[in-house]
Amino acid sequence: MTAPDPGSDHEVAAAVAAEAGHLLVEVRADRADLEGRDLKDHGDRVAHERILALLTAWRPDDAVLSEEGSDDVARVTADRVWIVDPLDGTREFSERPRDDWAVHVALWERGALVAGAVGLPARDLVLRMDRPEALPARPDGPVRLAVSRSRPPEFVAALAERLGAELVPMGSAGVKAMAVLDGTVDAYVHAGGQYEWDSAAPVAVATGYGLAPTRVDGSPLQYNREDPYLPDLVVARPEVLDEVRAALDALADDAHA
Ligand SMILES: Nc1ncnc2c1ncn2[C@@H]1O[C@H](COP(=O)(O)O)[C@@H](OP(=O)(O)O)[C@H]1O
Ligand SMILES: [Mg+2]
């Protein structure tokens, strides 16, 4: 049976992320018979089904764009669309006991992200757009950039060289964006491929925390487009934003020279 409607859209986002996260933690513990691809596929599927069941019960009139669902283009004309990645960092989820994987739940309404939560189930955390916390003070030293541990884009290596930055590898777009918010790193820059579900909830939460995520070229991130491919992203804490932007612009100039 589905629990009662949690209330506001923010509460729904957080409850959906938490419930799917609990399920994934259980699956990982209970299904010792599953490994690798089988564990990834099972996790993706059960988390997607749970999220869909909860959103259907609590927000029956809203559309859903999920990494694991079949896309219905009718969402493009809908007023409200939940953009979800039931299991981000699927690879890391399958590598027990890694904890760098996430559940993403965001709500897009008429052009803007209006609610969002990123669950970090293996850390028993849900970060929410509506419950921002102060960023810890930034330590002295080089800029720290979160980067994919399994397929670090060459572009980010070039950026790090230009900035004299340190690369901090970890899995999951949600984990990397949340690492900016908890002070583990100063920025997360990605290029070369991603989809709306990889960044919508992390961007919603980062926006709630007062950050201003953009595309790599500085333009706004736009969601609920017909093609959900959204290949690049910059999430940076305010103290390093100008420096990171200047380096990105210089790299773009070099590329066009
Ligand atoms: N070049 C690329 N093209 C498409 N998706 C990419 C990508 N690089 C990263 N991603 C997606 O972004 C998420 C974070 O990746 P990473 O951990 O490597 O930083 C992953 O989501 P999933 O785990 O949901 O598939 C991954 O599939
Ligand atoms: Mg993903």
UniProtKB/TrEMBL annotation:
Gene Ontology MF terms in the entry: 3'(2'),5'-bisphosphate nucleotidase activity; metal ion binding
SUPFAM superfamilies the UniProt entry points to: Carbohydrate phosphatase
Keyword check for Transmembrane helix: no
Catalytic reaction list: adenosine 3',5'-bisphosphate + H2O = AMP + phosphate
One Gene Ontology term from the biological process aspect of the record: 3'-phosphoadenosine 5'-phosphosulfate metabolic process
Gene3D superfamilies: 3.40.190.80, Fructose-1,6-Bisphosphatase, subunit A, domain 1
UniProt entry tagged with the keyword Ribonucleoprotein: no
Cofactor names: Mg(2+)
Domain of life: Bacteria
Residues given in the record as Mg(2+) binding sites: E67, D85, L87, D88, D198
UniProt keyword terms in alphabetical order: Magnesium, Metal-binding
The name this protein goes by in its record: 3'(2'),5-bisphosphonucleoside 3'(2')-phosphohydrolase
UniProt source species: Phycicoccus avicenniae
